[in-house]
Amino acid sequence: MEMSMEVKFSGDCDRESHLYSSRVTPSCHRGFHGLYIFSLQHKSHELFQKSGVYKFLFHMDETSCKNYEKEVTVLASAEVGRWQLVGYDKNEHLRVRVGSCFPPLEVACYDIYGNLIPFPSTPKVNLQFKMGEGMLICVKKTKAGLSADKRTLRIKDILIESGDLDVIRPNYEGTMLLCPPDESLSISIPCKVIPGHVRRVLAHPSMQSIQMLPGCIVQELKLEMFDAYGNHALKGSEVLLKVEGFSIKDQMGKKHKVMCFPRFPVVDHDGFVHLSGMLKVTAGFNQN
Description:
Layout: E1 3-10, E2 17-24, E3 27-29, E4 32-35, E5 52-60, E6 68-74, E7 80-85, E8 94-97, E9 105-111, E10 116-117, E11 126-131, E12 135-139, E13 143-146, E14 152-156, E15 173-179, E16 187-194, E17 200-204, E18 217-218, E19 222-226, E20 240-242, E21 246-249, E22 255-256, E23 258-260, E24 272-274, E25 279-281
Parallel strand pairs: 8-16
Antiparallel strand pairs: 1-2, 1-5, 3-4, 5-6, 7-9, 9-10, 9-14, 11-12, 11-15, 13-14, 15-16, 17-19, 18-25, 19-24, 20-23, 21-22, 21-25
């Protein structure tokens, strides 16, 4: 006569699901006969690794024996397996402008079997932005705190300040490394940190070296654009240029005193705006 066993599982969501079922006939083990022996090892499932309640249901057909039910509660392991970012699309880069804060990051903690577990306390976190081969920028200005149930670590005010973004242009992609001080765990987050707005401009050649005669066309002039940290401006950045003592011709031959890009040449991939042949001196002698 066969006996059947069904195993059901319910976790945090309390919804019960079927895990495994089996039927066996009586057998002998160590001199004992009439034993129903069920194997709990099967390639289709891994019992007792996921925390929750496992319910075992035993049943025999065509018998007066009552069904038997046994529950086994499995707790998560205390051994931390990994940290993982919550609510984050791995296929997208986090994007921020240098000198601005990243959106808050939320981190969850899992045991070695993949069960969500609470943080015992607010952990110290090291953040570094990795650019290219081996160049690291330490992120010092952060705040971290735990949620009410201690299952989520929220890190905010993540500010990146650097004047070395030219190293990773033109795509400005790098990796944010998040880990505890002992570096026993780590999270790698693809990021894109772009230059800030234009704050400093250098003329090439310098304006003092250009021959300023009324009616002359400035044959060679390019402006090198930098943000507040010394990074070259982002390719394609819009620039508002106001000129005094010059008129400027657009591609249609019209003259302007104020030129707004991108109707005209914009910041190129090297961080320059090219004005060669576009400026005409209109100021008279001894005028600025």
